[in-house]
CLD34 protein
Amino acid sequence: STSHLQLAAFALGTVGWILCTISMGIVEWRVWHVDNTTIISSGIAWVGIWKVCFISYLHVSPGYKEQFCHKFSGYDSSIPPDIYAAQGLLLIAMFMGLLGLTATVFALRNIYMGITHKALITHLFLVGGFFYIFAGLCVLIPVSWNFYSVTHNHSIAFPPSYYMPSSPAVQEAGAAIPVGIVAVILLLLSGTFCLSYRFPVTANTVTK
C-alpha cells in the first residue's frame, strides 16, 4: 500500500518511453511551406531528424501522388547540429528510459511479492528515478532546440540531390514536438515519483 505512487510512476514512465520512441520515428519535426511547387507539388515538406520528405506529382500518372524521402547521411555537413544532436540524445533517452522501467519493475516485484529488502528496493527506485529524469532531459534538449529553430525560421543548406530549398517561406512545429513535450512531462513525473519513495517503518508492538 506504500508503493501506489511508484506504480503510477511505472505506468507514466511506460507511456513516456513509448512517446519518446514515437517522436523519434515521426518525420514531422519541422513543417516547411515552400513557394516553388515544381518538385514539391503540395508546397509542404517535412523535416525530421532522420530524413526529409515531401509529396511530388512529378513523373507520376495523373491523379496519383508519391512521397519522396531522403535519409540524412552522417557525411552531410550541411545538416545542422540540432538535428544530429536530436538523433543521439533520443537514442540515449530511449535506452535510459528502458533501464528506468527495468529498475522500477524489479522494485515493484520485490514489494508485491513481500520481499522486504529495504536497501535493494530503495536503491532500485532511486536508480529508476535517475534514469527517468535523465531520459526526460535527453528528450527536452532536442525538442526545445528544434522548436527554437522553427520559431526563428532557421534555414538548412540541403544538398542539391535533396531537391529542397535552403529556406522555407514559412515553417511551423510538426507533430513530433508536442509528442516529445508530453514524453518529457511523463518521464520527469515518473522520476520524481520514484525518487520520493520511502521504505515504510513498522513498529513492533507487544501484546499482553
About this structure: The chain has a mean pLDDT of 84. The helical segments are 4-25, 81-112, 118-151, 176-195. The longest helix spans residues 118-151. The beta strands are 30-33, 44-47, 51-56, 66-71, 170-173.
